Amino acid sequence: MTAPAPEHWIFAYGSLMWRPGFPYEEARHARLIGYRRCFCIYSMHHRGTPQRPGLVLGLDRGGTSEGIAYRISGANYAAIVHYLRKREQVSGVYREVNVAVTLLDGTAREVMALTYVVERAHPSYAGRLTLARQARLIKGASGLSGINLDYLISTLRHLAELGIRERDLERLIAMIGPHTARGRRPDRANPSVLAMLRATRRLPVLVPVRGLKLDARRRFLHRQGVLA
């Protein structure tokens, strides 16, 4: 009797939910226990700069997160992992791990999925910031992948489509300004978002990040073995 082919899954909790960038066989609402989704990473590339860092999401220890589990074909898996490493591992702030996630499709089936959790020893790890501190960083930052506030708005909208409530993120957008989330295009800056960015991007924000230079941060890639 031939053994069934192994399944390959990717667990998405941030921008991969609405912009995966890779082909997949199916997408399922899923839950991960043991990690929480939070703004715990200083962004100096995708959603900020070394001069004006922003914040992006990571999975940090403790709690529960819901997101999307993508099933990937075996033929595409190696190429997709290579793509994800180039996209997510600019500076090695994430650890690539396999975790058990539960599919919330009525089956309660548990599958192993690849995901990216924050590397706490990395100089870009922000830790548990107050919501006021998060708001100050997010509303005035922009990077190669766009405006930081758009990233927060898109995350909340896609979580809402899945029926997921993230109380801290909802409080965060309430502190920044609920009107900024009312644009018709969630992945593009609406006038309210642009006005917020212009008004706040020059305000000084002290960020206690050790080793802001990319070369200093990329040393973590060697330890994780993802440079090849």
Q: What fraction of residues sit in β-strands?
A: 25-35%
Tell me the major beta sheet.
Answer: 5 strands, antiparallel
**CATH superfamily grouping:** Gamma-glutamyl cyclotransferase-like
| Cα gyration radius (Å) | 18 Å
Mean pLDDT: 86
Helix content: 25-40%
Give the number of domains: 1
Low-confidence stretches: none
Helix- and strand-based class?
alpha+beta
Question: Could you describe the 3D structure shown?
Answer:
By secondary structure, the chain is an alpha+beta fold. The chain has one domain: Hypothetical upf0131 protein ytfp, CATH 3.10.490. The chain has helices at residues 74-88, 131-138, 148-161, 167-176, 191-200, 214-217, 219-224; strands spanning 8-12, 26-43, 54-72, 94-103, 110-118, 142-143, 146-147. The strands form 2 sheets. Strands 1-3-2-4-5 form a 5-stranded antiparallel β-sheet. Strands 6-7 form a two-stranded antiparallel sheet. A hairpin with a 6-residue loop joins strand 4 and strand 5.
